[in-house]
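Human: Cast an eye over this sequence-structure pair and say how the chain folds.
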Amino acid sequence: MFTGLIQGVGQVVEQEKRGGDTRLVIDCGDADLGTIAVGDSIAISGVCLTATEIDGHCFAADVSKETLKLTTLGNFVVGTRVNLEPPLRAGDALGGHMVAGHVDGLGVVEELHADARSWRLSFSVPKPLARYLASKGSIAVDGISLTINEVDDRRFGVNIIPHTMSHTSLGDRRIGDHVNIEVDLVARYLARIAGYE
């Protein structure tokens, strides 16, 4: 379980195809990921993976064929910057919202423009995810906990403060780029209880 509060931006330094799967090596740079050990979960741009090796500031993770198909990780190349978050531990502050690291689908950056010192971004999502969007609700975009400002059918808009823009990979995004979307866990369970799934 995660909070969507990114602890640092890392970079893909190795990408090795292995029988349909991929092994990624991520350099954490200055990110303090605490006491991550082999076997621990870590969110990479919103995707929960398992650290399989640790070497200094770098860790390796295996990415399954299914994850490569359903997330942006299939498009990663050496040099891709990624958002990093260690798992939530008992007693940690929950400053964002509950994020599982299970990507629901790919969104597309539709608009991006400056708004005073902040940035306004809008994203479109696949039609099945639109029912989970709510104004002032929570959503994770590439693992970042964000508040939805407005919703228009399959599109939603967010406001990004300068700190978030400069301390996550959102600063790298351009119109047309794909992003990992995880809808709010509460919205997903409420839809299931109400019989919408």
